[in-house]
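REQUEST ID: PR-0412
SUBMITTED BY: lab tech R.K.
PRIORITY: routine
TASK: structure prediction, single protein chain
INPUT:
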Amino acid sequence: MTPSTRERIVAESLRLFADRGYAATSVAEIEAAAGLSPGAGGLYRHFRSKEEVLSSAIREHIERTRKQISDVLAESDSYKGRPLEVRLRMTCQAGLAKMREEQDLIRVLFRDLDQFPNLVAEMREGIVNPLYDGIATWLSEQPEYAGADEDWPAIASILGGAVVNYWLANESMYEPPTRIDERRFVESWARLGMGLATRESSPAT
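STATUS: complete
OUTPUT:
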């Protein structure tokens, strides 16, 4: 399906913001990248300002993320027949794929969004926290963890944070931490998750 003009503007603006920075990207450059006549004002037929384009990009990613989380949780029952370690590897790989999918938005977040605290809050509440909540929900619903008295949100923040850190290190320093390739990272991540299935609760102190 051919993207609409509005969709092209949003996609191309986010790519340019990620590559060049928000302030360094002009409206005319966005128009040219979106297939419009640069400087002719075509962007303003769809958005009031460059900031509104950025806001729209973030909100579209929020809606897509919500749908992805809902779909993944709805489909998770179909994978419960597979070994837990396989399901954990699939979850880790899905997390890394999500980071790659959102790489332009992440670059904009770290480079420019300090200018827009309201958009940072929208990203936190609309993308970041729901992803961690989704991991916590998924973990708590695995049959091997049934009856486990675990702080699933805290565990999700650790396991999810490991995925984020691995990807960010690879992205910002051009190689993963201590050159651990993705296969080794995913396998080790799954082994940590496997340990939750056999861990006995520690007595309260």
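NOTES: The first helix runs from residue 5 to 20.
REVIEWED BY: pending
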